[in-house]
Amino acid sequence: MTDAAIDIRAGSFKPGTSDAEIEAAAAKAAQHRRRTVTFWRLAILIVFLVAWEVAGRMAWIDPFFYATPSAIAQRLYEWTTEGTSEGPLWYHLYVTMEESVLGFVTGSVAGIVIGVALGRNRMAADIFSIYIKVINSIPRVVLAPIFIMILGLGLASKVALAFVMVFFVVFHNAFQGVREADRSMIANARILGASDWQLTRSVIVPSAMSWIFASLHVSFGFAIIGAIVGEFVGSRYGIGLLINIAKGSFDAAGMYAAIVIIMVVALGAEYLMTMVENRLAKWRPQPLHETQ
Questions:
Q1: Which of 121-130, 180-189, 220-229, 230-239 has the lowest mean pLDDT?
Q2: Which of the chain's ends, N or C, has fewer CB atoms near its CB within 10 Å?
Q3: Residue 213: in which H helix or E strand, if any?
């Protein structure tokens, strides 16, 4: 329900108000809401950074362990303009992103395909569920040294860990989304003579898209975590390597700078995923928080 709709129900629009005026009022209210959200986001960030900087300079916290925003910004500037001790920052970022994207894409595709397949086949789901639960119970960090031992320090071990991090998140949502598909729509499609493939493609998968996209929103972050953990355990390049080196030299600013880079990339991926979701799911009703 838009703010304009609320005003209409409250009687604040006079009888005979045109649709164009109502739409203009709704657009104005939506724009005001976006500006308010942006203002408070920036205000909270600025207050947090200023408080952190002041606390470090006044020695309320130890800058040796917590660094300061100015020191972190200085380290980022040095890495960007002069490079790191292990080579250009952009190459390390490229390596981590390559590992993350490959793990995200392969893990997402596998999770969706297997989740939908098992969601549609109850017998197969009952047979394989125990194995999926057992494998999913293994801590991901434990797999990092195993993958590195088997696949080496290169790309493959990091992609494998990112794949595992992504797969189970997407799989469980795809599986549950298929199980929660609208039974009335399925029954109607069967009455109209839809085959199993047509039913899956045209009814069940679209019905599960909200579940799938909900998992994809968080999965890229998990893919980055998998790549970083793998690099942290053993690698020649990557943001995880920079964190490991900064940790070994007690460079708090370097560790936080690497974390800032990861957060910016993850935030960009989140916005990109939202754009893709909005494009592919135009048929879906607007979320409540976007219309209030």
A1: 180-189
A2: N
A3: helix 205-233
Q: Please report whether residue 77 resides in a domain.
A: no
Residue 98's domain is classified under what CATH number?
Answer: 1.10.3720.10
| pLDDT at site 284 | 58
From residue 142, give the alpha-carbon distance in Å to each of 58, 147, 232, 247, 278. Answer: 41, 9, 13, 20, 37
- The CA distance from 176 to 223, in Å, is 21
CA distances to 200, 229, 286 from 191, in Å: 15, 51, 30
Give the per-residue pLDDT at 3.
Answer: 45
Same domain, 47 and 133: no
Six token digits for residue 9: 């129900």
C-alpha 228/C-alpha 263 separation (Å) is: 12
For residue 53, name the pLDDT band (cuts at 50, 70, 90).
Answer: very high
The pLDDT of residue 285: 56
Domain that holds residue 158: 82-280
DSSP conformation letters of 137-162: TS-HHHHHHHHHHHH-SSHHHHHHHH
Whether 8 is in a domain gets the answer no
Residues 6+ apart with CB under 8 A from 155: 95, 98, 99, 102
The whole-angstrom separation of Cα 135 and Cα 142 is 12
Positive or negative, the CA dihedral 268, 270, 273, 275 is negative
Could you tell me if 27 and 96 lie in one domain? no
Report how far apart, in Å, the C-alpha atoms of 215 and of each of 141, 219, 267, 279 are.
21, 6, 15, 17
136/248 same-domain check: yes
Per-residue pLDDT reduced to its tens digit, 131-146:
988 988 888 888 888 9
Q: Are residues 127 and 222 in the same domain?
A: yes
What confidence score (pLDDT) does residue 10 get? 44
Same domain for 104 and 216, yes or no, is yes
pTM: 0.79
